[in-house]
TrEMBL record:
It comes from the Bacteria. This is DUF1501 domain-containing protein. Pfam families: DUF1501 (PF07394). It comes from Symmachiella dynata. InterPro entries: Alkaline_phosphatase_core_sf, DUF1501, TAT_signal. Transmembrane segments: none annotated.
Amino acid sequence: MLTIAGRAHSTGEFCDGVSRRDVLRIGSLAAMGTAGAWSLPDLLRAESLSGSKSPKSVIMIYLVGGPPHQDMFDLKPEAPKEIAGPWRPIATNVPGFEICEAFPRLATMADKLTVIRSLVGNQAGHDAIQVFNGHHPKNQKPSGGWPQFGTIVSKVQGPARPESPPFVSLCYTCTHGPYNEPGPGFLGAAHSPFRPMGETRHDMVLNGVTLDRLADRKSLLKGLDVIRREIDQTSTMEGLDAFTEQAMGLLTSSKLAEALDLSQEDPRTVERYGTGDPTIMIDSNGAPRVPQSLLLARRLIEAGVRVVTLNYSKWDWHGGRNTEGRADNSIFLREAEDFPIFDQCLSALVEDLNQRGLAEDCAVVVWGEFGRTPRISARVGRDHWPKVNCALMAGGAMQHGQVIGATDRIAGEAVARPVTFGEVYATLFRHLGIDTGQTTITDLNGRPQYLVEGEAQPMPELV
């Protein structure tokens, strides 16, 4: 946490003896960190979270590596065992709506969920691009690349509250580059997400630095800033200005700081979600299995953030055998490990949003980059399968308690109501109040670009 050796003031002090004016004095220096993440200063806890209703928002959960649709939400128990696997479907609280037996908590709230079993047009390789911006990576793209969803919302709508950024990413950095968020594209750094989980989250730890020394450093930085602006021929400084403004919002209000501080949460709620170690990367190149990220997302939504993205665990289960020939890394052992934990934290999020009156305002989407092969491999795994994928949605005042689309008898291809990424994105934009048929953003060549691929419309089943 940021602790500054300050002077005594007679009025307007925080608990550390630092005044609001002194807080403002460190804003420019603190903003010299990179695009992202900050430790949370104790002095910002002087204010409590507002009880006002949250704006329309979206939580996007990326299951890194491609989740097995036929073992989660599209089971085929009548298929041969090399297709079906060991899991069996269970009934939910919605007649005819079945999911994997490893998700008993989600089964009790299926009336608050929608499963899309027929997501088509998926990419074939590991890449987070399509998940985060809705565009197939092999399709033509404008100079600079497509902006991701949260970036567009930041550009079109801006912050809902002055003290909270419109877009926050809770995604952990993956060592496999394509697993990471694709970035702001042609909209530029000014609309990059605020990243409190990034590698530079300790940049604001200024041990032993007094306010007077900070003031001297700030003056020096101002002089250097003039030089940089004179030689800068790009939009980099404009982006840095946006980060400075964003950092000042954090420094002058406790709303975002408290949202990111789980010690402020009821311990029973934390326990309900569950916790994981953010330093342990699953399969070394994925994301950590951190259930509390979903709780942080809910807290950020309450603080006024419009879009929160997060990545969760590693779902690329090709299987594998040890030297003795045992399938110790089989897909089904990994599923037995991951499924119950995910059932707990995702059901906790859906339950939490409903109990707090946030479900109508906050939409949730859970998905990965593609599905998995119908046939179980010799390594006791499932490989990449772009022909069909699944997604789960909740909240957003949508018509839930349903399954959209269907696949063939082996969950290999969509045979009813194929759904595209563009349709899902059009639905999310509509929830936020953005008309994808009318709204455009201007690319680097001055051309207006629509927000979704093709002429995709919001899904009528949901809206």
